[in-house]
Amino acid sequence: MLLNPEQSRILFQDALEHHYAVLAVNADSPAAITDCLEAARHCGSPIIIETSLWQLTGRSFSAGDAIAGLTNYAIQLAQRANAPPYDELPILLHTDHIKGPQTVELLTRAIRGLPLGLNGEIHSVSPSTISLDSSELSESENIDIVCRLCEAAQVHQRPVTLEMEAGVDDGLTPPDVAQRLLRGVEQNFPDCVWLWAPGVGTRHGLSECGFPEFSAEAVERHRLLAREITNRDIGIVLHGSSGLSSESLQAAVAAGVVKVNWSSESLKSRSAAAADFYKRHEVQLRPGHPEFKQTSMDNGVQSFVSQRYVPVVADRIELLGAKGKSMAAMARIRKG
Ligand SMILES: [Zn+2]
Questions:
Q1: How far apart (Å, rounded) are the C-alpha atoms in residues 215 and 257?
Q2: Per-residue pLDDT reduced to its tens digit, 38-92
Q3: What's the gap in Å between 284 CA and the centre of ligand 1?
Q4: Residue 22, SS3 per DSSP
Q5: Counting C-beta atoms within 10 Å of the first and last residue's C-beta, which end of the chain has fewer, N or C?
Q6: pTM > 0.85
Q7: DSSP strand E in the chain: where?
Q8: What residue segments make up the domains of the chain, in order of their start?
Q9: Ligand 1 centre from 200 Cα, in Å?
Q10: If one looks up domain 5-335 in CATH, what number appears?
Q11: Ligand 1 centre and the CA of 175: distance in Å?
């Protein structure tokens, strides 16, 4: 079931209380979304499907038009998440790393609801949770954009659950930065930010040698600080998790991480499998070969990738302690 912004808060509260984190995969094609949903179904776990700007403008969901891309992405996920065999799993749609001049317009449209034509009727769907990429923004610009999104939600009377970030690639975020950013939003729009992504020593991209700077203590400090500022439980989000050791990931979850963003390793796993598929099937791809059609069609490579990729996603879900957590979380979400 695709969770709405209010239901998403219940899931993160459940994760915090039961010491697990929800895997958030940057899924950049319908096939990647299918594979992530399948991994969650095998694990009986919640999952977050997230999209960055480059996926929305890519050819799987549009050809350059981010608003059309987000609408198509949301429609595909909503239709699948709300029907068997996935309707008993908590599934979230998250906007990740949205940046550039269209940020406010795109995310405001998302908060207002993207048109969803189902069964001849027009409904609308909003992402479960929303964040933007603040890496090129000053503190005041970051606060200003987050506040504009909160204001849009207020004006359109829509709920919003936001993730706010601070220099996730810049080492450990100092407490005074957290104070200024979170307070800057909270004093104007309380109750909108429910996820906090500070720098805790990881970096985006693949790392050969892990992240020696990573600090589970920093995660704990930020969780306590965010609670002190907002007077509610705020889950910590880990960006740049590719290459972080299993021990560090589990320490991060124990310290209060409830959402683990995962992109680079996921892309590497899928692209390496695709490369291997084409290498192994060079002969079948020659015109005239009897297996040409079944090898060259999209489903040929996608099925091969899926066999390799789904177990990798499932392992990651298990590592974060989320295996088997969907049933209790859904019961809590349905209770409201
Ligand atoms: Zn990130």
A1: 12
A2: 999 999 999 999 999 999 999 999 989 999 999 999 999 999 999 999 999 999 9
A3: 39
A4: strand
A5: C
A6: yes
A7: 22-26, 47-51, 91-95, 114-118, 121-125, 129-131, 162-166, 193-198, 235-238, 257-262
A8: 5-335
A9: 12
A10: 3.20.20.70
A11: 20
